[in-house]
Recover the amino acids of this structure.
């Protein structure tokens, strides 16, 4: 749906000293991403989140963490209100990169997206619960995942159940990677 410009949030960057004059590097349905300072060689971004589910994914004490989850450096709090009806929250996160056309991370990402899509088709009669059941299927079915990937799928399932979030593993740009090639679940959930 991100191909449809009407789905992308059109709000201006909220007025905040941290955000002033920063270069915009991404925008999705509910998030604006700005370049932040590089600290000790680690590139960072500000994610301006309008979805409470995304905010929980990035800041909740029991949020999923580990090799395939984004590193969060700071929660800079709420800044104004978005057109989506929720406050904007600014979190400082490691900078990630789009997956290239080939390579190990891209292959795993494609396998996650296609297996997830296939599982959704299998469980499509479950309507609202389809996505979560499909994710459960991915997490428990031996599909040759690396242990860290399988643990991450399980952690995502737990998060989705606990926070009433729905998985969003089909859109390619919700899976990204670190410079070293590690696959990262950048934006794997959305709000019901
Ligand atoms: N950590 C990041 N580093 C660099 N770019 C990012 C990062 N996170 C997201 N982006 C870019 O911003 C876009 C929107 O971010 P995303 O988290 O997918 O928002 P939404 O919830 O609105 O879909 C992504 O498609 C990607 O291009
Ligand atoms: Mg997204």
């Amino acid at each position: 749906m991100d191909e449809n410009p009407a789905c992308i949030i059109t709000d201006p960057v909220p007025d905040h000293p941290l955000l002033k004059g920063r270069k915009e590097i991404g925008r999705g349905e509910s998030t604006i991403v700005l370049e932040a300072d590089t600290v000790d060689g680690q590139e960072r971004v500000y994610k301006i989140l309008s979805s409470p589910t995304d905010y929980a994914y990035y800041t909740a004490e029991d949020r999923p963490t580990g090799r395939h989850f984004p590193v969060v450096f700071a929660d800079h709090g709420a800044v104004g209100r978005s057109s989506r009806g929720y406050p904007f929250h600014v979190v400082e996160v490691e900078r990630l990169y789009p997956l290239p056309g080939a390579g190990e991370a891209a292959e795993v990402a494609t396998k996650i997206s296609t297996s997830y899509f296939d599982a959704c088709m299998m469980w499509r009669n479950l309507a609202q619960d389809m996505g979560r059941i499909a994710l459960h299927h991915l997490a428990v079915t031996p599909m040759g995942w690396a242990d860290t990937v399988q643990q991450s799928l399980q952690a995502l399932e737990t998060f989705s159940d606990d926070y009433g979030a729905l998985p969003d593993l089909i859109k390619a740009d919700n899976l990204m990677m670190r410079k070293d090639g590690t696959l990262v679940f950048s934006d794997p959930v959305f709000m019901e």
Notes: The chain has two domains: 5-96, 104-191. DSSP finds four helices and ten strands in the chain.
